[in-house]
Amino acid sequence: MRISGLATGMDTEQIIRDMMKAHRIPLEKITQKKQYTEWQMDDYRSVNRNITDLKYKVTDTMGRQSTFMQKTVNISNPNAVGIKGLSAISEFAGTIKVDKLATQASLQGGMLTNVKGSTRLEQLEGYDGEKIIKVRAIDKNGELGEVKELKFSATDTIDSVIKKINSETGVNAFFDEYTGKIAMTAKNSGALKGDVGTPSIVIEGKLGDVLKLTGTHDPDDDNSPKFTAGNNAEFIFNGLKTQRASNTFTINGFEVNLKQVTTDEVTFSSAPDTDKIVESVVKFVDDYNKLIEELNEKIREPKYRNFQPLSDEQKKDMKEKEIELWEEKAMSGTLRNDPTIASLLTNLRQLMSSQVETSNGEFISLKKIGIEPIKDFKENGKLAINEDDLRKAITENPNQVYELFAKSATDTDKGGIAIQFRKTMDGFNAVISEKAGTTGTVSDNFAMGRSLKSMNQQIDRFEDRLKMMEDRYWRQFTAMEKAIQKANAQSANMMNMFGQ
Hints:
single chain; 500 residues; alpha+beta; four-stranded antiparallel beta sheet; 18% strand; flat; FliD_C; Flagellar hook-associated protein 2
């Protein structure tokens, strides 16, 4: 039981609170250190995330050959033939004459009388409980694919049958209520290999009979199915007469799309798509410069030593705006002069000035394609681009520009700039992760996490000691109050006795 100033009239609670303030100073210092460490850890993780994002972005663009092999293709008749570069290393030129376009096989069923899309199977003429239809169609290799057996219930409708056929087989089907017929088209175009008499869409099962999709075509019977075979595309490419199962195919890393039959030869020629390649390189340099700027800001950010993290008690006496302005300065400079970031910046500057040996034994650098560090030392290693020089290098030798950025690394060769950039960033990520961890990492697995765990334990132990100390003060003051109260009572009794 706590007695507060009943006998002495003292504000015991305020006295003890003031006494405890002095004892709490070491605890506040630990708490401030913990808060600062958390801010520092968050800043490390933020830098690590930004670097990881850029690392993958560079890998997915500047680290891929396709970025530098982009082509523009000039075609004399683009309405008849379309050509675009996919992964071509060399240039592509010649002629093409289209004799026949590839077509898909089709199957037109017989007429179903008084049938709609909502008609149930059990309502069809000839339905006797058979619920299975087997569908087989030409595959991508020009051969009959595996049989797909579909099962239905009596309450399934024409529409639900069509939907399942489309989703699970190699044909696209639809029901035309106007003619009362089901029509199917093979998903893969071209002629069936082997026996030319074999249909490339095969329907089996009694349900197929009911839907009038089976049997032999009779020109005089509108209720008989009609099959039309698919054709291969036939064309003459640079004097070679050849075929493809599809109108879209790839030759030497270029995608060719046949659109129309032609009577004359269509000429075509490719060239590097300089604009797109330049755009990719400029984006890389812009992202790199942004990273350099952010990292330099971090290690040069001012540190305000007079602005320590605020305690809860201190925040109670401050306005929200005052707290915001204070913490803005308190959080500043958490990574000032950080040696890991400073080392990364040095490594990046050296990397961007290095040379790469190409496959023909020549050495090439960013400087040779118009990319150099800005001479103003205040820019701290940012890069500048001379687009005229860059375009010239891409036009003259796009493969060499590709090797500068994306040449693969070997045991004796560090590889291109983008490959080395990825490796440098991987090393930085590992160091920072070991120091500050990542979101969700167990605290015991990284240095700052272990430090924070130790601080939390210190805070808990200190809180326990302070509670014990406060309880002791209360016991002492309570004992004093009781003693004075007892003395006062004895004094009053004596006065009463003398008064008698």
